[in-house]
Amino acid sequence: MLLKSDAYDACIGYFADNLDLFEGQNGSEQGDLISDIVSDQVADMLLCFCQQQPQLSHETRLTVIAEGDKLVDDIEQILGRLWDKPATSSQIDFIKEYFLLLKNSLDSQVPAIY
User: Fold this and answer.
1) Closest-CA residue to 35 (of 101, 81, 102)
2) Residue 25 has what pLDDT?
3) Are 5 and 89 in contact (CB under 8 A)?
4) Strand, coil or helix: what is 22?
5) Are 35 and 76 in contact (CB under 8 A)?
6) Chain centroid offset of residue 18 CA
7) Which residues touch 49 (CB under 8 Å, ≥6 apart)?
8) Which of 5, 13, 98, 113 has its CA 20 to 30 A from that of 49?
9) Which residues sit opposite 86 in a β-bridge?
10) Distances 14 to 19, 87, 101 between C-alpha atoms, Å
């Protein structure tokens, strides 16, 4: 649904265009890992989406949830070695903003289902 859309391609491009936010910046030695923040944001986004779209079939919901795993994989590939590093506050802010963008993109795909 989302992963096969032009909106998703644009979102991935946006993430890649902002890699400088992740490269060359070191978070503290402690704190939440980028991987954990991304995983939490995906889970929150999918839960929110499913709650806000009660008309979706069970099959469609399962498809959307399965895309969440692929989404995490895509971001992990973009970030590479940075995936398991502690995040800076600016990286956390960007990731949260990014998932709001993805959520909007996902919401825009709902009319195409019906």
Assistant:
1) 81
2) 62
3) no
4) coil
5) yes
6) 14
7) 64, 103, 106, 107
8) 13
9) 33
10) 9, 19, 10
* pLDDT over 90, % of the chain: 71
- The 10 Å Cβ neighbour count of residue 99 is 22
SS3 54: coil
Each residue's pLDDT tens digit, 25-72: 665 667 899 999 999 999 999 999 999 999 999 999 999 999 999 999
The dihedral region occupied by 53, where left means phi > 0, alpha psi between -120 and 50, and beta the remainder, is beta
DSSP class per residue in 61-81: HHHHHHHHHHHHHHHHHHHGG
pTM for the full model? 0.88
